[in-house]
Design goal:
The chain is α+β, with helices and mostly antiparallel strands. 40% of the residues lie in helices and 27% in strands.
């Protein structure tokens, strides 16, 4: 899967102030006064996004950059980072949608060329784009969890869930957690979004 590392908008003190009314440092100082990182990500997001009506992209960016600036990390020493969610309703039954994630031949048509995959707990996959990973959990027609690794990017955990939407349609949700940078997050959102569009076109074509 091709991913270009590029944030949707420039990140700078000036750009933040122009869009949100405050510079990053001004937001950080205000959050410090309110209680700092101990407030937790949800309360901080509610303050920025809900109370101050800041655009969701900037709210998430300020929140994540604030944690980085204040040295907030998880037990593994890495920042919580960004969360990415891609959703799509596909006009195909759930077994066909799942098969497109489990059949290497079909994966090669939308995910990455020449994909080889052992879609089972502990199985591995790889493709011509340099993507590799390990399947952590495989529950056919329900959900998948696997690592996504590429030499050009930070490793991520990918969760995929499938749901019946009725009338032969399937709901697909792709979630990536712990993405470490804004450029990586926006690039991955676009890359996975384009991949899911290819999947949809393949199954509905």
């Amino acid at each position: 899967m091709k991913v270009v590392l590029k944030s949707d908008f420039p990140i700078s003190e000036e750009a933040c102030k122009s869009t949100t009314g405050k510079t990053l440092q001004e937001w950080f100082a205000e959050l410090d006064k309110l209680g700092g990182p101990s407030m937790g990500r949800k309360r901080i997001n509610d303050f920025i996004y809900t109370q101050h009506k800041v655009d969701a992209w900037w709210a998430a960016t300020i929140n994540s950059l604030y944690e980085t600036a204040r040295g907030v990390v998880e037990k593994d020493g890495r920042a919580k980072g960004f969360n990415i969610c891609v959703t799509k309703t596909i006009a195909a039954p759930i077994d066909r949608v799942y098969a497109a994630w489990a059949d290497p031949g079909l994966l090669s048509k939308w995910f990455g060329e020449d994909t080889v995959a052992d879609v089972a707990d502990g199985g591995r996959y790889a493709n011509k784009d340099g993507d590799t990973g390990v399947y952590k959990r495989v529950r056919p027609c329900k959900d998948l969890r696997f690592t996504w690794e590429n030499p050009a990017h930070q490793p991520s955990i990918v969760d995929v869930s499938f749901s019946h939407k009725g009338n032969g349609k399937t709901g697909l949700l792709v979630n990536l957690d712990r993405v470490q940078g804004r450029e990586e997050a926006d690039g991955l959102r676009k890359g996975w979004g384009e991949a899911v569009e290819r999947l949809k076109a393949l199954l509905e074509g």
